[in-house]
Amino acid sequence: MSNRSCSSLRADCESCFGLCCVALAFAASADFAINKAGGTPCPNLDSDFRCGIHQNLRQQGFKGCTVFDCFGAGQKVSQVTFGGKDWRSGQETAKKMFDVFPIMQQLHEMLWYLTEALSFEAARSIHEELRMKLKETEQLTRFAPDFLLNLDIPAYRSDVNVLLMRTSELIRAKSIGKRKGNRENKKPDLRRADFMGRKLSRANFNGANLRGACLIAADLRGADLRRADLIGADLRDADLSGADLSGSIFLTQVQINSAKGDGRTRLPESLYRPKHWRA
Predict the structure, then answer these.
(1) What is the pLDDT of residue 1?
(2) For 214, which of 82, 88, 122, 200 is 20 to 30 Å away at the CA?
(3) Read out DSSP for 87-119?
(4) Please, which residues have CB within 8 angstroms of residue 279's CB and are 6 or more apart in sequence?
(5) Which residues, at least 6 apart from 22, have a Cβ–Cβ distance to it below 8 Å?
C-alpha cells in the first residue's frame, strides 16, 4: 500500500470538527475515565475542536482515545459531506453529522482493506474486481447525508467481504506446506478462536486464518504472523514483542495501537510503531 493511499485513509484532525470526541459514546472503564453520551462533546474538547489533553491522554485515563482511528472518515464528513459546515451550526446539522460519521467510518475502513488487497501480487487475478469495488466504495463516500443514512451498510460490508476472503485465500495459499509435520498441507482455520490470555510465544501462525479471533492479553512474543489474516482480530493488550507481522493481511493501525510491542516487533510498511510501545 502506497504512502499516499495510507495518508488519505488516516485521521487528519486539523481538517475535522472533533467528530470522534462528540458523536461517539463511551463508558467509564480502563479505557475512559468518565461516561459520555453520543452527541455530547467530551469535556476535554476545546472550542477549536482540539483535545485539551492530547499529550497526556493515557495518563489522564483516556487510553481508548489513543487507540481510535477513523480511517480518515472525520475529515471526509467535515469537509466533503457537509462542505465545511460544523456541527455547532444547528441541531439538524449536528444530528445528521453524528449519524453519518460511523457510516463513513465503516466505508473508509473498507477502502483501507480494498486498497491493501490491491497491493498483494498474489491476488493479481482479482485485481480488476478489487479496483471496481474500490472505485464504487469511494463514490459512495461522496454522496449526500440522506443517501448515506439510508445505505444498507451490513449488506455492503458482506459484499466487500467476499472479495476480501478471496484475497486472503490467495495470499495464505503461499504458506501451504511450509509448516513442518503438516501432512495435509492445510493452514489452520482459527476464525473467531478464543486465545484470550493464552501463552502463545513463538507460535507459528504463518498463513493462518485468525479472522475475528480473540487475542486479548495473549502472549504472542516472537510469534510468526506473516500472511496471517487478522481482519477483526482483537489484539487489545496482546504482547507482540519480537513478533513478525510483516506481510500479515488486513491488519489496521487500530489493532496495533491497542496491543503491546517493542522495537523488535516487525510491522507491515503501511503501519507505524505506537509511541507507547517499549523501545
Answers:
(1) 62
(2) 122
(3) GGG-HHHHHHHHHHHHHHHHHHHHHHHHHHHTT
(4) 262, 263
(5) 39, 40, 41, 42, 45, 87, 98
